Amino acid sequence: MRHARRVVRRVTRLAAVGGLLLGATMVTHAVAGEPRVPDAVPYATAGEAGARPGAGLVARLGTSRTAGSWTDAEGRTVVAVTDEAAAEDVRAAGAEPRRVERSMDDLRSATATLRAAPRVPGTAWALDYRSNEVVVRGDSTVSAEDWSELTEVADGIGGFVRMERTGGTFTTRLNGARPILSTAGRCSAGFNVTDGERDFVLTAGHCGPEGSVWFADDRGRQEVGTTVGGSFPGDDYSLIAYAGGRAGEGAGVVAIGDGRGVRITGVADPAVGQRVFRSGSTSGLRDGEVTALDATVNYPEGTVSGLIESDVCAEPGDSGGPMFSEGIALGVTSGGSGDCRSGGTTYFQPVTKALARLGVRLIVAPGADGGAAAPSPAPSRTQGAVAPDAASPGSSAPVRGILPDPSTLLSRLADPRNVGPGLLVIGGSLVALVATRWIRAEQDRKAYRRHYSATWG
């Protein structure tokens, strides 16, 4: 028995010494090494030349001489201009000019007047660059009286405001690529993002308020994380902080169904006329065309502006799901009207704006050969030079679970970013070492008392 206790003490001491060495190594690496940030690309702002086709020309020529840009059926960039000098500049840049009557300033002035009018839930408007008009839509919930009053406002603006009635109702598509659930409802994981310290899910803002706890299963056993910030109404984006701090393997891949995924390699703003793809847990992978930008929707919960308008269908359960094209992240699903049987209009929160406001970066997938993705893919190559009919979602990849793989626990513990685990290992090892020494000392004292008693008793 005494021999067995000695063996246990020696093994414990050896384990404690080993723990001290391991913990010291982890802390040393964490302090000495630069924190390793996941492969990520910064957001592209709408004003940057590469953000979407024609954006650089529009920014350079100004909003008084241009009225937006779009991609035609052959994949060419078309820029709406108000004078011949601007048209010559567009031709010199290799794009196609289109003379129009009204400038972007005129179109934005019209939308400002609409915003100043009494708010009517169930209405939406957007800038139609190709027709050089502002399109106002009203769903089935808008009364004849409200529609008549809004029509009077439009008539006062001028003949370039087009009024259209639409079927269905404009609603947030609460309840995406991978389902996430909370007491606030059911939504979709959009894209994985990082601030360099922690990883997050970027999803729709209307999915749930700050503090909402999200799970990957309906029994509440697989916690994904907690909503830590966002904006709705006004905008429609939010961040869910992963419970474990990391997004896990396959963070740069979005699911498109049947265990398949698409590698996300960059982020940009879309172009009108561009073919895009949307993935959601309710309706799966769907495609369509961007029909307008800078759209405003008056949801029952409030007004959201600066949205991407498209004819891609969506249904309840698709909220927050990703919109992308050629592997480029474009938006997260906000809401719309109709469904995937009858069609409809769907609106998306631009990813670029959300990343800029939240101060995070998109996590991108490694290349097909396993190497890191390009640090900043050129959106003009993937967005403008590809004809809409030839566009694809992006390169394929297998889909991992939304939660980090438990098998990566050991590698995370050894990750040089983790000072905390190293300190915990050191602390535990010190406790074990002190305990073995105390037990040995106590046993020695008892043995001495027994010997003393036997000698002098």
Automatic annotation (TrEMBL):
What InterPro entries has UniProt attached to this entry? Pept_S1_alpha_lytic, Pept_S1A_streptogrisin, Peptidase_S1_PA, Peptidase_S1_PA_chymotrypsin, Trypsin_dom, TRYPSIN_HIS, TRYPSIN_SER
Q: Pfam families per the record?
A: Pro_Al_protease, Trypsin
Entry GO CC: extracellular region
What UniProt keywords apply to this chain's record, in alphabetical order? Disulfide bond, Hydrolase, Membrane, Protease, Serine protease, Signal, Transmembrane, Transmembrane helix, Zymogen
Tell me the leader sequence span: 1-30
Q: What molecular functions are annotated in GO for this chain?
A: serine-type endopeptidase activity
Q: Which residues cross the membrane?
A: 419-439
For bias type Low complexity, the affected ranges are 384-399
Family per UniProt? Belongs to the peptidase S1 family.
What's the protein here called? Trypsin
